[in-house]
Amino acid sequence: MTQVVVAKIGTSSITDDQGEIDAAAVAKFCAEVAALREAGHRVVAVTSGAIAAGLPAIGLGGDRRPSDSVTLQAASAIGQSRLMRVYDDCFAAHGLVAGQVMLAPLDFGIRRQYLHARSTLLRLLELGVVPVVNENDAIADDEIRFGDNDRLSALVAHLIGADVLVLLTDAAGLLTADPRIDTSASLIEEIVEFDAELEALAGGTGTVRGSGGMASKVAAAKMASWSGVRAVIAAAHREGVLADAVASVPGVGTVVHPRAQRMGARKLWIAFAVDTTGRVLVDEGAQRALLERGVSLLPAGVVEVEGRFVADEAVEIVGPDGTTFAKGLARVSATDLRATAGRRSADLPEGLSHVVVHRDDLVIVP
Fold first, then answer.
1. 4-266 in CATH: which number?
2. Does the pTM exceed 0.90?
3. Which CATH superfamily is domain 276-364 in?
4. Which tens digit of pLDDT belongs to each residue from 316-338?
5. How many separate helices (H) and strands (E) can be counted in the chain?
6. Distances in Å between the alpha carbon of 13 and those of 111, 134, 149, 197, 224?
7. DSSP category for residue 300
8. Could you tell me if 201 and 177 are in contact, meaning their C-beta atoms sit under 8 angstroms apart?
9. In which residue ranges of the chain is CATH 3.40.1160.10 found?
10. What does the alpha-carbon distance between residue 114 and residue 116 come to, in Å, rounded to a whole number?
């Protein structure tokens, strides 16, 4: 059966200790993508590595890596072309054409851009091209960016309706403990539902060269699960890892099963693709109504408003215990909501929306 696959590989898996591109590692990855294509599957590759590849070219590789965002963005501009040159050559060896696709959060946060990105990716697949996706680090605002390509790959998987998301890393998958501390650590082969204990096992960030880590991969797999996409966290160095992940071979890595109840496309877009610009704190009655009855949020249930947002921007909805339990698109601005918070609909001025977040624009977040 033909499947649509998103395969993501991280910086540390395709560069050496100095940040130079490891052509052999990229060649292995491309060969495995080519094998999937030969088997009839459609594949989108998501790759990191542009910044790490660009730094050595300007004498800033290894332990001389800078921390300021402007230099890192400049390094990305230098390294992206070097990275794509290797991908072009490696895919050409298998008779395949690669197509560079640079994405930024605004491509997911603005509905028109979102649909345009999907159309472009699907058309590339129809043409037999392997899209090679990376975040547009060179021009990304430091405050408006993905931060790692794990989240990006999960959003791409949702965007194109993928069947499988494969997150390749240096580890065999999510382990029961840190193997550097506990030699008895073993692979967690399947995850059906996430809990706090499982997420705690993921730990922190990854290597100096990479911005991700197991925590970001687990978060991405969780996003994919809510999108109805099966996710696999597996070792990039394993032979045949992509084919095994797509074929559901036991022990290939950590498999995160898709949830039985999937969100619709619009609500998935709100839940995972749109950044929030404020928080709306509600009382216990409003929280119960949203969770149990699926109603719209009205001003009467609002206790406090945080941040600065305008109508149609996304906000977090926070319960009395301080926990975010929902997310949605506001129908009113933060200024107007502060003026009407706690007031009944009958007491609201004419011309002002009586709905803070409509139920069609509201998502109970995982």
1. 3.40.1160.10
2. no
3. PUA domain (2.30.130.10)
4. 999 999 999 999 999 999 999 99
5. 13, 13
6. 33, 15, 13, 27, 22
7. G
8. yes
9. 4-266
10. 5
